[in-house]
Amino acid sequence: MEFLFTILAALILIVVLGLVSVIVFEAYRRSFNNAHVDAPAIFEDPKSLKQVPCPDIFDPAKKYLSLIIPAFNEEHRLPGALSETMNYLKKREAKDKSFSYEVLIVDDGSRDGTKRVAFDFVKKYGVDKVRAILLGKNHGKGEAIRKGMLHSRGELLLMLDADGATKVTDLEKLENQIHAVARKEHRGDSAACDTTFKISDIPIVAFGSRAHLEEKAIATRKWYRNFLMKGFHLVVLLTAGPGIRDTQCGFKMFTRSAARKLFTNIRLKRWCFDVELVFLCKWFRIPVLEVSVNWSEIPGSKVNLLSIPNMLWELALMSVGYRTQMWKINS
Q1: Counted domains in the chain
Q2: What 3-state DSSP class applies to 237?
Q3: Shortest CA distance to 156 belongs to which of 88, 62, 275?
Q4: Position 328 in a domain
Q5: Is residue 235 assigned to a domain?
Q6: Using an 8 Å Cβ cutoff, are 294 and 173 in contact?
Q7: Residue 182 belongs to some domain of the structure
Q8: Which residues belong to any copy of the Glycosyltransferase 2-like domain (predicted)?
Q9: Angle CA(242)–CA(243)–CA(248) in degrees, nearest 5?
Q10: Which of 50, 66, 151, 152 has the fewest CB atoms within 10 Å of its CB?
Q11: Residue 155 is part of which domain span?
Q12: Dihedral, CA atoms, 301, 226, 22, 110, nearest 10 degrees?
């Protein structure tokens, strides 16, 4: 009985904190924060020094694949991950002439040499292949990804972390699963022979998942980290509902139509935007596939114990925001 009372008290506290958060957040957002974030996006071609307007997610797709890499103070980890990514993409392009791609590096207000690293890759591969979007100041990983998604040109859009924790070759696992589901969604398996079939037109999402590695991770982690992980999973379950075992893996693929719906609505900017994506996918009834990927822990993670209160705060914010309809969803 005491345990149930504790859970009830915690839920009430989360709701109260969330309601206050929504009010404060909305006042802040409307007053001055969005003036910067929603300003027209322009990136600079380092070779010509000309400013080039960014494309829009509502434009027709011009590339097959867009890769969005959020980067905040990633001067040291970004070069290796980018080199591996570009080598894979070049080899695939050489084998398949119909394959086209772009890489968007979204610098989330870095204070180190991240911008220089990004521009070095833009100069090396050209502005059609690699682009750098500068947010000017730090807004959070969720906002950086949102910005990159909204200004991508791909039929398929992949978000991946700057540390290269998941091998870029694993994108083919997500890609193949999306194509398989899309064929079934569009007139059964005959879609493969249908010239009107476009993968970009069918809303589907594929989440890279580390759930198959969880048993090994539990065995090697400190007890308090396992306790916090289980607690976070419970709060996510209460907030977004069941269905996805690993919401936090930074390797996710979206069809263009799915990205339009999701990233024009997403509001959380930092730790728990992944959970909001799950919630919105359920709202729009977008199929979500969970696909196992290879993953290795890379030193330099920016998530620590102090992130937990902020994550809980954002989950409370989201829960109350949507349930009170203070956060409207545009269809």
Answers
A1: 1
A2: helix
A3: 62
A4: no
A5: yes
A6: no
A7: yes
A8: 66-260
A9: 95
A10: 50
A11: 2-323
A12: 0
Beta-carbon count within 10 A of 205 CB: 26
Q: Which candidate, 236, 284, 237, 249, places its Cα nearest to that of 264?
A: 284
pLDDT at 63 over 80: yes
pTM of the model: 0.81
- Helical residues (DSSP H) of the chain, grouped into ranges: 2-28, 34-37, 78-95, 114-125, 141-150, 171-185, 214-220, 223-240, 256-263, 273-284, 307-323
Residue 174 burial class via C-beta count within 10 angstroms: exposed 0-12, middle 13-18, buried 19 and up = buried
Q: Which pLDDT score, from 0 to 100, does residue 11 have? A: 53
Q: What is the mean pLDDT of the chain?
A: 80
Q: What's the pLDDT tens digit per position in 222-274?
A: 544 555 555 566 666 666 566 677 777 889 999 999 999 999 999 999 878 98
Residue with tokens 């992944």: 274
Q: Residue 236: which CATH number?
A: 3.90.550.10
One-letter amino acid of 267: R
Which residues, 6+ apart, have CB-to-CB distance to 202 below 8 Å?
A: 182, 185, 186, 255, 257
Residues 128 and 256: their CA atoms lie apart, in Å, by: 19
Within a domain: residue 331? no
